[in-house]
Structures are given as C-alpha cells and as structure tokens.
Amino acid sequence: MSEKVLMKGNEAIAEAAILAGCRHYFGYPITPQTEIAAYMAKKMPKIGGCFLQAESEIAAINMVYGVAGAGKRVMTSSSSPGISLKSEGLSYLAGSDLPALVVNVQRGGPGLGGIQPSQSDYFQATKGGGHGDYKMIVLAPSSVQEMASLTVKGFDLADKYRMTAMILADGTTGQMMEPVNLSEVEVQHYDKPWAVTGTKMQREHNIINSLFLEPEELEKYNFARFERYKEVEENEVMVEEYLMDDAEICVVAFGIAARVSKNAINEARKKGIKVGLIRPITLWPFPKKTLLAAADKVKQFISVELNMGQMVEDIELATKCKKPVTLCNRTGGMIPSPQQVLAAIEEADKGGQA
Amino acid sequence: MVVFEKPKSLCDVPLHYCPGCTHGIIHRLVAEAIDELGIEGRTIGVAPVGCAVMAYNYFNCDMVEAAHGRAPAVATGIKRADPENIVFSYQGDGDLASIGTAETVHAATRNENITVIFVNNAIYGMTGGQMAPTTLPGQITQTSPYGRDVKHCGYPVKISEMLSQLEGPEYIERVAVNNVKNIRAAKKAIKKAFQNQVEGKGFSLIEVISSCPTNWGLSPEKALQWLEENMIPYYPLGVYKDRTAQKEAESK
Known about the structure:
The structure holds 2 protein chains of 2 kinds. Chain A folds into 2 domains: about 5-235, Rossmann fold, CATH 3.40.50; about 240-350, 3-Layer(aba) Sandwich (Rossmann fold), CATH 3.40.50.920. In chain A, about 40% of the residues lie in helices and about 20% in strands. Chain A contains 12 helices and 15 strands. By secondary structure, chain B is of the alpha/beta class. Chain B has helices at about 25-35, 70-80, 95-100, 100-110, 150-155, 160-165, 180-200, 215, 220-235, 245-250; strands at about 45, 60-65, 85-90, 115-120, 125, 130, 170-175, 205-210, 240. In chain B, the strands form 2 sheets. Chain B has a 7-stranded mixed sheet with strand order 2-1-3-4-8-7-9, sandwiched between helices. Chain B has a two-stranded antiparallel sheet with strand order 5-6. In chain B, helix 1 crosses helix 7 and helix 3 (about 95-100) crosses helix 4 (about 100-110). The radius of gyration of chain B is 17 Å and the shape is globular. The chains are: A alpha/beta, B alpha/beta.
C-alpha cells in the first residue's frame, strides 16, 4: 500500500510518532505547533495511550524524563520559547542517557519573539541549550513527508544511542499541507535493561541518575558518552546533494530554506549558472565530510538561513575555510524569497562576494 | 526471635546524613511501609535535589534522580508509563515548596496516583543552611542572618494547608518525627499514603516535620526540642484532607 494522504506537517509528526510506537505525549500550548498536541489529545485515549497537558514546559519535559526512564517511547513538542524552558530537562535527559523525542517547531526570537517561521534556534539545538557536555541528534525536515519519516527515524536513533533526538522544524513545515505516505513505517525495537520497571525482586535495583560527585567518575561518563557521539557522527549523517556534480557555487540550506533555495537554483541553472545545493538533514551530526569534499570543487558557499547566519560558522569549520561562505538570510519570522536567493547566486557567479 | 531488623527495602549501606538528622528515621518508615505492603518489586522512587539527593542509593527498589523540584512531574511520567507500578517521591522543603511548587500543586490537583513524602525542616540543608520557603518568621539562617523578616521576604509556605484546599488530592497529613509517639503516627500516615496508591485512590502527601541539627546549630536533642517548641505550633500536626473519610462521614 502506498496511499498518500493530505496532512499538515504538525499532524504528520503526531501520526508518525504513534506509528513509531509512542504512547506517551506531554506538552504545553504554544504557537505554531499546537496541532501536535491537539492530534495527540484526540488519538491517544483511543489507542490506550496517554496525552497529558502539563502545567508548564518544565513539567512536560520532566514527565518525558519519567516515561523515558521507565523505558517507553515518549515525546514532547514545543516552539522556541518553550524549548528554552525545556532545556534544563534536555540536559538531565543527556546526563542520564535517556532516549526521547523532542520537537521544536521554531518561531522568531529572541524573547517572546513572534509566531512566524524561523530557524534561529540552530545554535540552541546543535550546540546545547542546557548546561554541560552533551549533544542531541538534530533532524531538520523540509517537507511534510520528512516531518513523518524523520520522526520515526528520531525515535529509532534515540533508542539506539540513548540520546534525545530533536526534530528542528519551523512554522512553515509545521503549518503547510502536503501529501504524505505513512504506510511504510518500519519500527526498530531496542532492549532497555537499564529502565526502571520495578525489580520484580529478580534483579538489583536500577538507578536513573546524572549526579556523580567524584569528578573522575563524572569525567569517565562524559568520555564514554562522547565515544557514543563519535559513533553517531560516523554512522548517522544524513544529507541531500542536489545538482552538485558540476556545481561551482554551493548553496547550503536546511528545512524550509532548502526548498526556497531549490527554486532559486533551478532558475539559476536556466541561466546557465552552475549551482547546486547541500542540504543537511542531520544538523548534528553535521555533514562535515560532504561539505569538505565540496570545498575542493566549488568557488563559493552561500548559506541560506532564517536567522542571522548561525550555520555559517559550522560550514566554515567543516570546509576548513577553504572557500568563502556568504550569508543570504531573513530573520524575525521572515522567509527569503527565491528571488533573493537567486540574486545571491548571481552575485556569487559574478565573483562579487568572493 | 528477631524483634527488630532493618527493612528489606533499605539497602545495607551507610547513610551520609549528619548525626541526629531525622532523614534516617523517615527513610526507615518509608521502607517499612513498602515492606509491609509487599510492593518493593513494583515500587519506583524519585529522589530530590537536597540532602536526600542520594536516596537512590538507599532504597532497594528502582530509583530515579530528578532535577530540583521536578520530582512530582517525573513521578507522573513513571506512573503513567505503567500505572501498575507504585511510585513515590521523597522531597525536601526547598525542592517541593519553592522551586517545585508548580509541579507539586499540579500533581495534587490532577490527583495523580502517587505518594509524596515531604520532609520539612525549615532550612536548605545540603547547600549549608539557607532560608527555606518554610523557614519560620525570625529564624536565623545563612541568608536570613538577622532572622527571617516577613516584611522583606514574606511568610512561610504551609503546604498541607494549601493543598488541602484543592479538590484533587486524596490524602494530606502532617506528622513529625521528634518522639516515639509522633514517629508511630508518622509511620501510620506514610503506610496509608502508599496503601491509597495501591487502592488507586490518588494523590497522597505526607508532610514530615523534621530537624536539622547541623544547620540549626543545635545538638540533636536540642534540635528536637526546638522543633517541638517552634515548628509544631506553626505547622500543626494532623489530617488536612482525607477524601475517603470525608465521603464515609457524609454517607452516614
């Protein structure tokens, strides 16, 4: 069966989570992701699951911590200011090596910001947000289909590596409707012998904990965790390359910015400009190898973002600053138009910003 | 014949608590209740941030360490993950009545089917004796060196009185562990708080008035005396809410 249904991005996330075996959702209302909670509120009671509206984002992420500790698939979703509140919990999840899925349908910031689409939580998602040495797997969907497939993937990766996986979407992908195929969901199952399920008087007690007062011990855990992160970097990078074979200019963009960029690239190609796209699907792990390889072929990178250029330094680091990286952006809830991106490509083609 | 032994639900390890601290007594009462109800194999405890942070090393059941104040939310998640399990949180006054007030109030108002052990000693112990939400008016602490001035920083939070005003919770009782009589009453209340959960009755919170000799700057004995003379008058002991008893009384 490969039947396609028309869904909103936010609904696709919710339905995919259910298909992935998630039966516990905790959230707090915030625009522009509320459809996820509404969908869960409708569906969960019908399938023996639990939807609970928490008293705060902080409570929601700690309820997630509880279910994750008990070894079941669990998620929460929010938008930018709400993710800031959840960041304490994200750090604790990492410190206790608990798997969970967290969705951020980003809106403009800082502060209360706005409710229009944004990508300005890139730093927060990829560099931390909470305190301490830790990483999250960050997945950036650019279509409703990917909202669904990356949600399933996120649950699998979270369980596999005992990490938080974050869907870093934006208000546009959350709100737009597209056909989506949900029929081919394959779910991985992972044993969780560490979970607190009750000893049944048959084993030693399990302890879910992130406190280690001996610095040698804490260091040992952090080293071990980063060994695991290395495996993620080795094995789990996802990236799309579009028209990169003969490209002399490389646009780098994720999420909704990548879709706008593709339109601009198609227009530029009609004008004979050799331009392609590298679209990171995992923002962490970042597709460093793909970018470094491209740096030997292209003369310039253009980072297209819905923020003040937060990804630029990751591109520069990945490419070891071999080629210039320019920024084509809007922020505060604005989206670059294909014309704006095309203009940036044409400028680069003339060597204007090299 | 063995007439007294360590509860099986307590690990056989030395506790880190200060001499004269009443946490040890309260741990034992919780463990005895778990033993007597035969629920250790399906009980999951949630430890706080505070002096009892390492309670996960002391209870023999599965344990989770929560962020400061978040234990009722974490316990909610664990309980919702498998409602057959018995879930309790063990929290101090800073954790439960200051940074975690929202989580406490909302777990109570949802009548979340969990058991909360709330240890009130009117001070932040682990960080070295700062003013707590439950510090008494005039009480000297590291951060109220001239005595708690209610005009400047307000009045103590009376959790049992507050929560008993909510429709949600099943059972709220305040007890103390300063003498044998009160310890026996505390045991009875704690066991009932677990029994309620076993029977699916909902949220039970036992506030345990306890002492902190180290940070009160008193000998263990004098601390218990101070507790009796100062804390109990401010925090009267007794049942603040018992919905089942209320219903039974109404139906008579």
